[in-house]
Design goal:
The protein is an alpha/beta fold. It is 57% helix and 7% strand. The chain is built from 18 helices and five strands. It has helices at 6-9, 22-33, 51-63, 77-83, 101-111, 133-144, 164-167, 180-193, 200-209, 214-227, 235-242, 247-258, 262-274, 279-299, 310-320, 325-342, 348-360, 362-388, and strands at 40-45, 90-94, 121-126, 150-156, 171-175. A five-stranded parallel beta sheet has the order 2-3-4-1-5, with helices on one face. Helix 9 packs across helix 10 (214-227) and helix 9 (200-209) packs parallel to helix 11 (235-242). It is globular and about 75 Å long. The chain starts with 5 loop residues before the first helix and ends with a helix.
């Protein structure tokens, strides 16, 4: 049998397996237990937070012959058929590639046929925001008054693109970014089942890199495990595979920038790039480090806002004393603009080095600002002259 990716292998099979979305799970379980199932739902939230997984568990639970506290039993004929993908009661549609009005008309025609077994035919429409306006309008009437045996679940990462007329016909559930501690615990649970030893620091780093996405975290874990197959996963090994840098490097870099030590800053950047690190990831991680310094400076290390060990918070507190908050915020703004510029440049390293030199020479940033203001004034003057010269 071919290898199954970790995020697929450990996809939730019951509501109790879903991590970090307790507010959604509790409501759906209560609806099933009390037979208050609606006809249309919309699941919104960032990628990898469990929208499609919960939709599949929900579709299975409403058709389960012996649900247990709102959970599917995974033992009855309906549960087994849905798990194996053989059931006609669950229809998945990828709106990214089936977004036309004709696709929706075919779906509306299909809705007319009652299920041969089970209670509901569940239509899961993934990436629902990709449907055209015409397609969404074609779905409106059926979505508002579907047959009693039909349920719709729309999943989207861009809720603002969904028509208000669609939203008003659905129960809406917002999926939150999953807490790093929850993702870390899940990584440790999975590696234990897979007989892979992983350092806590490595699991924590993968969780933070995933940015609230369980799927991204498991994909990253898959990548690291594959590279060090049969070996223990250390923090250093994880950094090497993901092209990341140890926090100690960011500490050294910040101290160099704060002290306006150009040679030391350039040495750190050179060594980092020579070690094969990706410039965009490096700058992004450094911005996160600056964010932590700023929050420690303004809110204190006891606030709980910064997710770091006590030792790491102590280092951040020391760094926070090296400069003022306005300067740190200026660093963050300048580096954020750099990331955007790097997307369209083949000379990322050169742009990065120039930007860091500017951080250490504020007069350069001031000159840039003055030049930008001058250009805007010239543009406004030209517009005013054009208006005044219009007969």
């Amino acid at each position: 049998m071919s290898y199954t990716a970790l995020y697929r292998k450990f996809r939730p099979s019951t509501f109790d397996d879903v991590k970090g979305q307790d507010h959604v799970v509790k409501t759906l379980k209560n609806e099933i237990a009390n037979n208050r199932i609606a006809h249309a739902y919309i699941f919104s939230g960032t990628r990898g937070t469990g929208k499609t997984s919960v939709a599949k568990v929900f579709a299975k639970a409403v058709n389960c012959e012996h649900p247990v506290d709102g959970n599917p039993c995974n033992e009855c004929a309906m549960c087994k058929a849905i798990n194996s993908g053989k059931s006609l009661n669950v229809v998945e549609m990828d709106a990214a590639s089936n977004n036309s009005v004709d696709n929706i008309r075919d779906l509306v025609e299909d809705v007319k046929y009652a299920p041969s077994e089970g209670r509901y035919r569940v239509y899961i429409i993934d990436e629902a925001h990709m449907l055209t306006t015409e397609a969404l309008n074609a779905l409106l009437k059926t979505l508002e008054e579907p047959p009693e045996y039909v349920m719709f679940i729309l999943a989207t990462t861009e809720i603002h693109k969904i028509l208000p007329t669609i939203l008003s016909r659905c129960q809406r559930f917002d999926f939150r970014r999953i807490d790093n501690k929850v993702i870390t615990a899940r990584i440790e649970e999975i590696t234990d089942k897979e007989n892979v030893r992983i350092e806590p620091a490595a699991a924590e780093y993968i969780a933070r890199t995933a940015d609230g996405s369980m799927r991204d975290a498991l994909s990253l874990l898959d990548e690291v495990v594959a590279y060090y197959l049969g070996q223990d996963i250390s923090y250093e090994n994880t950094l090497k595979v993901l092209g990341a840098v140890d926090n100690a490097v960011y500490e050294e870099l910040f101290r160099a920038v704060a002290a306006s030590d150009v040679p030391e800053c350039m040495r750190i950047l050179r060594e980092t790039m020579d070690n094969g690190r990706e410039a965009g990831i490096f700058v992004s991680e450094f911005i996160w480090h600056l964010r932590n310094i700023l929050l420690i400076k303004e809110a204190g290390k006891a606030s709980g806002i910064v997710d770091a060990s006590e030792e790491a918070k102590k280092h951040l507190e020391e760094e926070a004393g090296l400069t003022d908050s306005d300067t740190i915020m200026n660093y963050i703004k300048t580096l954020s603009a750099l990331i955007n510029d790097m997307k369209y440049s083949i000379e990322k390293r050169v742009l990065m080095e120039i930007c860091f030199i500017k951080l250490m020479k504020p007069q350069m940033l001031l000159a840039d600002n003055i030049e930008n203001i001058s250009q805007r004034l010239k543009s406004l003057e030209s517009q005013v002259e054009g208006i005044l010269n219009t007969p």
